[in-house]
C-alpha cells in the first residue's frame, strides 16, 4: 500500500511539473508499473537498459528519438518514454529475455507488457522442470548422424516463434578446408524441447564460403 501511494504521489508530482520532471522520478514510475504487474520477487531479475529512449516532435511535428537515462531531467517535449528492461534468471543459464515498457507524456502505460519468456516454474515459484544440459546432450547424440565429429553442448534459449524454451545443439556432417585454411562444410542443428525432452526438429546448415 505504501508503494502504491508513493506511485500515485509521484504521478501527481510529474503531471503537475512535467516540464521539469527528473529522470530518476520517471524511472521510479516505470519500476512501480513493472512491479505492480510482476511482483517484487520477479522484479529483482529485471535490469533497466541504457537502450531506453524517448520520442519527441519538433515544430514541424516530425518525430525524433534520443537517450535520456544519463540526463538529469526529461526533455520538455517528449511524447513517449520507452524503458527497455532485461530479464536474466541467474539460477539457470539461458533463461533470459526482455520487454519494452512504454508510457505516454502522462506516464500512462501504452502497450501490454509481455512476460511469456518467463517460464511458469519461475512465476509460480516452483522447482525447475527443465531437463538438464547433460540430458539434452544425450538426446542430441542419440538423434545425430553417426560420424567422427562431436555433438556440441546444447544451449538453452527462448524461441519466440515456438513460444517455449529449447535446447539447440549442432553436429558437423562434413568438414573440409578451403583455400584459406578455414573449415567449411555441412552441419545439422538439433532442437529439443527443454521441458519434455522431445525432439523438435533437425535442420541443416552450412558454414564457410567456398572460394573459387
Describe this structure in words.
The structure is a single chain. The chain is of the alpha+beta class. The chain has 2 domains: 122 residues, no CATH class; 75 residues. Helix content is 24%, strand content 32%. The chain has 5 helices and 10 strands; from the N terminus they run H-H-H-E-E-E-E-E-H-H-E-E-E-E-E. A hairpin with a 7-residue loop joins strand 4 and strand 5. The chain starts with a helix and ends in a 5-residue tail after the last strand.
Category from helices, strands and their pairing: alpha+beta
Mean pLDDT: 89
| Rg over alpha carbons | 24 Å
Distance between the termini: 70 Å
Bulk shape: elongated
Query: β content, as a range?
Result: 25-35%
Continuous helix count? 5
Protein name: PepSY domain-containing protein
Can I get a quick summary?
24% of the residues lie in helices and 32% in strands. It is α+β, with helices and mostly antiparallel strands and 212 residues long.
Notable characteristics:
elongated, 10 strands, 212 residues, alpha+beta, 5 helices, 2 domains, five-stranded antiparallel beta sheet
Break the fold down into its secondary structure elements and pairings.
Elements: H1 2-16, H2 23-38, H3 40-43, E1 46-48, E2 53-57, E3 63-66, E4 78-88, E5 96-104, H4 120-123, H5 133-143, E6 155-159, E7 164-172, E8 176-177, E9 183-193, E10 199-207
Antiparallel strand pairs: 1-4, 2-3, 2-4, 4-5, 6-7, 7-9, 8-9, 9-10
Helix pairs in contact: 1-2
Amino acid at each position: 500500500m505504501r508503494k502504491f501511494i508513493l506511485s500515485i504521489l509521484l504521478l501527481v508530482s510529474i503531471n503537475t511539473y512535467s516540464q521539469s520532471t527528473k529522470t530518476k522520478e520517471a524511472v521510479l514510475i516505470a519500476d512501480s508499473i513493472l512491479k505492480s504487474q510482476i511482483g517484487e520477487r520477479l522484479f529483482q531479475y529485471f535490469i533497466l537498459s541504457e537502450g531506453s529512449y524517448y520520442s519527441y516532435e519538433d515544430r514541424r511535428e516530425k518525430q525524433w528519438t534520443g537517450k535520456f537515462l544519463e540526463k538529469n531531467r526529461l526533455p520538455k517535449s517528449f511524447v513517449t518514454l520507452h524503458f527497455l528492461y532485461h530479464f536474466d534468471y541467474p539460477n539457470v543459464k539461458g533463461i533470459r529475455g526482455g520487454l519494452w515498457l512504454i508510457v505516454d507524456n502522462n506516464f500512462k502505460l501504452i502497450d501490454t507488457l509481455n512476460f511469456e519468456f518467463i517460464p511458469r516454474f519461475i512465476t509460480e515459484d516452483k522447482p525447475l522442470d527443465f531437463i538438464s544440459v547433460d540430458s539434452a546432450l544425450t538426446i542430441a547424440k542419440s538423434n545425430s548422424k553417426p560420424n567422427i565429429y562431436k555433438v556440441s553442448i546444447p544451449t538453452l534459449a527462448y524461441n519466440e516463434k515456438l513460444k517455449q524454451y529449447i535446447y539447440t545443439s549442432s553436429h558437423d556432417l562434413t568438414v573440409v578446408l578451403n583455400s584459406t585454411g578455414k573449415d567449411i562444410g555441412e552441419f545439422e542443428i538439433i532442437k529439443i524441447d527443454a521441458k519434455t525432452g522431445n525432439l523438435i526438429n533437425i535442420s541443416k546448415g552450412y558454414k564457410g564460403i567456398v572460394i573459387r
